[in-house]
Amino acid sequence: xxxxxxxxxxxxxxxxxxxxxxxxxxxxxxxxxxxxxxxxxxxxxxxxxxxxxxxxxxxxxxxxxxxxxxxxxxxxxxxxxxxxxxxxxxxxxxxxxxxxxxxxxxxxxxxxxxxxxxxxxxxxxxxxxxxxxxxxxxxxxxxxxxxxxxxxxxxxxxxxxxxxxxxxxxxxxxxxxxxxxxxxxxxxxxxxxxxxxxxxxxxxxxxxxxxxxxxxxxxxxxxxxxxxxxxxxxxxxxxxxxxxxxxxxxxxxxxxxxxxxxxxxxxxxxxxxxxxxxxxxxxxxxxxxxxxxxxxxxxxxxxxxxxxxxxxxxxxxxxxx
Length: 321
Fold this sequence. Notes:
By secondary structure, the protein is α/β, with parallel strands linked by helices. It is about 35% helix and about 20% strand. The longest helix has 15 residues, at about 5-15. It comes from Streptomyces griseicoloratus. Keywords: Oxidoreductase, Thiamine pyrophosphate. This is Alpha-ketoacid dehydrogenase subunit beta.
């Protein structure tokens, strides 16, 4: 099924299995969301469980916090990535802090769904990648699936988590299809996965960039180079052990994400792996991402986003050491 459909089916299962699960957001009910990710859920579960809200992100998250305090498990949708900032205060000062503030007595099982990233030709504030802002905040889990199967199972795990989860959905991959085994036993929510074995260099990515890295590995294979591709899946916490094991084998690492390279999640990965693998690395850890500039108009976004050539250039530079 498509990635968007997998999230829909996962939310349906969560609603069906736990009456305390609620879905809230702008146009999530009658319309089914602007990407139709929640299509049909209000019809089947009622408008008291799939709730169309006013255009007020701070109010959406604030209400979810209150509901979670009363024992509910709200799943809230921020319609587009750039719309999350009116709710940023609620997320970082309340949602992320309540567990510590109450010395562990209060849990806030809230999932904040955020369609994010570019590649769809959208207007301003509709193609941001703000994951590093949330990963910097203690008390939040930050994850992003790259495929339909992970989208289904990671959403299940996010809803069941007693800690708040920021669930970044790569909107350019909503229509990518893949096999989904709804009876499988999922791996850990924050575990990285090797999606392609290789020996010469490791490519690490998450969300929308995993597919690109697989394409890069295909192109490199035509030149006789063997690239290993990691799907990180989680930005906070990060599965550094899996990255380290891969780098100790390949001795080179390139980290790829859509967000700007400057102070991005790739910087943390580069620093940690340099500390952990200093005597294994044969080249500095390189990063490929967006530029330190506002996201451009749609006609220029392909120049802004990482592409096959930019990642291959980083591979070439790493292998040249």
